[in-house]
TrEMBL record, chain A:
Belongs to the sigma-70 factor family. ECF subfamily. Residues 116-131 have a biased composition (Basic and acidic residues). Residues 159-210 form the RNA polymerase sigma factor 70 region 4 type domain. Residues 58-123 form the RNA polymerase sigma-70 region domain. It holds the Pfam family Sigma70_r4_2. Residues 116-151 are annotated as: Disordered. GO terms for cellular component: DNA-directed RNA polymerase complex. Keywords: DNA-binding, DNA-directed RNA polymerase, Sigma factor, Transcription, Transcription regulation. One of its GO terms (biological process) is DNA-templated transcription initiation. The keyword Transcription regulation applies. This is DNA-directed RNA polymerase sigma-70 factor.
From TrEMBL, chain B:
It comes from the Bacteria. The chain crosses the membrane at residues 31-51, 63-82, 94-117, 129-149, 161-179, 191-214. Keywords: Membrane, Transmembrane, Transmembrane helix. It comes from Methylobacterium oxalidis. The keyword Membrane applies. Signal peptide: none annotated. The lineage of its organism: Bacteria, Pseudomonadati, Pseudomonadota, Alphaproteobacteria, Hyphomicrobiales. Pfam families: NrsF. The keyword Hydrolase does not apply. This is DUF1109 domain-containing protein.
Length: 223, 220
């Protein structure tokens, strides 16, 4: 079957209900789409990487639709998509091809969406969280001050990006997976093929190097 | 990196690291395997059983109902634990052990009442109750470990619920295995000792088993 048959459009970085509408309509799909997904997942269980790629791509809008339906908004939807894709990978042996695929997928997506909402409710509202900015009137800093702060933040980001890029490959991987993408050790280990111990050591070394590189006394030299 | 690219990259990573997997057996078959292991443990304990006393006790309706209730609770809770460990299965499966649990608790309560009305029945002393408690906890432990290990092969999305059901299954199986070794009738204090042991096993499973299973589901 053509790979394009599974390729559904992926909306942009900020998900809204209308982006996720096709996926929500897929909630009630029981026709050939369901059967094809089920067959592709069965092939993926047998090790067919191309079929697995198609299934995972088709899952993205469905997961996003479920997350939006549960009340997850903005960038958090993409986090739910990432978490759910990783859960699908770990749970793929539990899928029974004799049963429909979408209820299995939706159960995973719903759970990850609920986890994201719980995390969000536990976390204090942060100023860079778009939801918190939408929800309140902000008198805002003076235009000059905002510009200065924005430039400073961009400079800090650029310095950090340069420092991360200069790390050895193993350390860079550890920082990207564990610190930047906030993946667990097991997830990072599954994705990189490195042991949990090696990832911990690499992260420790990377943080030491980054601390040294970004120390205030080096600021003048680095920038 | 834009978000669709991030998803595309993860999809590529996951597809790139794909290895064939053996499909998990249906929950019912896995529950039967665990029940078989519990029965095998019972057979190992058979040489220590008081079989003539067991025949007499099982002739008493409430003791018989309590024993059947405990065994059914163990089987139903194990089946429910395996069901809830698979994504997409109804959460209502968690209610399955409730009817046999009601039979087990109800019949045990009736036994207490009978012991109170007919005090000539053989009742347990403090030493025997300590023995029952130790038996329930120590037999529940290997059964819990085995069940949690089997459940870890799946992906429980509600790990604490699944682990608590596993605790109930293990504790109920231990109580059923105790029946042939139990040299006395039920009393309120005996029931209390059983209740505390069962709650302890469920609580420990919910706490530690939940973390273990949660780690499996979330990859921690």
């Amino acid at each position: 079957m053509a790979a394009l048959a599974y390729r559904m459009p992926m909306p942009g970085p900020t998900w809204t209900r209308s982006d996720a509408l096709p996926a929500m309509q897929a909630r009630h799909a029981t026709g050939p789409g369901e059967a094809s997904l089920s067959a592709a997942m069965r092939a993926a269980q047998d090790g067919d990487a191309a079929a697995y790629r198609r299934v995972l791509r088709a899952c993205v809008p469905v997961i996003a639709g479920v997350a939006c339906g549960q009340g997850v908004r903005g960038a958090a939807v993409d986090d739910v998509v990432q978490e759910a894709l990783l859960t699908i990978h770990r749970a793929r042996a539990t899928y029974d091809p004799a049963r429909p695929f979408l209820p299995w997928l939706r159960a995973i997506a719903q759970r990850r969406a609920v986890d994201a909402l719980r995390r969000q409710s536990r976390r204090p509202q942060e100023v860079h969280d778009p939801a918190s900015l939408d929800g309140q009137e902000d008198a805002g800093p003076a235009p000059g001050q905002a510009l200065e702060e924005g430039q400073e933040a961009r400079l800090r980001e650029a310095r950090l990006a340069r420092a991360v890029a200069s790390l050895p490959a193993g350390q860079r991987q550890a920082v990207e997976h564990l610190a930047l993408h906030e993946r667990s050790l097991a997830e990072a280990s599954a994705l990189t093929g490195r042991s949990k111990g090696a990832l911990k050591v690499n992260l420790h070394r990377a943080l030491k190097s980054l601390r040294a590189a970004l120390a205030p006394d080096r600021e003048g030299r680095d920038v | 990196m834009s978000e669709p690219d991030r998803h595309d990259r993860l999809v590529e990573d996951l597809a790139g690291s794909l290895a064939p997997v053996r499909r998990l057996r249906p929950p019912g078959r896995r529950a039967v395997l665990w029940c078989g292991a519990a029965l095998a443990l019972g057979l190992l304990l058979l040489p220590f059983a008081d079989l003539s006393g067991l025949r007499l006790r099982l002739a008493v309706p409430d003791l018989q109902a309590a024993a059947i209730g405990a065994a059914l609770t163990a089987a139903a809770a194990a089946f429910a634990a395996f069901q809830t460990s698979v994504p997409g299965r109804a959460r209502a499966w968690a209610l399955l052990p409730l009817p046999p649990l009601a039979l087990w608790l109800g019949a045990s309560g009736l036994g207490c009442l009978r012991a109170w009305l007919a005090p000539s029945s053989g009742v347990a002393d403090a030493e025997e109750m300590r023995g029952c408690f130790a038996f329930l906890v120590s037999v529940s432990l290997p059964l819990s470990v085995l069940l949690v290990l089997m459940l870890r092969r799946a992906c429980p999305l509600r790990p604490t619920l699944t682990a608590a059901l596993a605790g109930l299954a293990a504790a109920a199986a231990a109580a059923a295995l105790l029946v042939p070794l139990h040299p006395h009738d039920a009393t309120a204090t005996d029931l209390l000792a059983h209740g505390v042991a069962v709650l302890l096993v469920i609580g420990l499973n919910g706490l530690f088993g939940g973390r273990l299973l949660g780690g499996r589901a979330e990859g921690a």
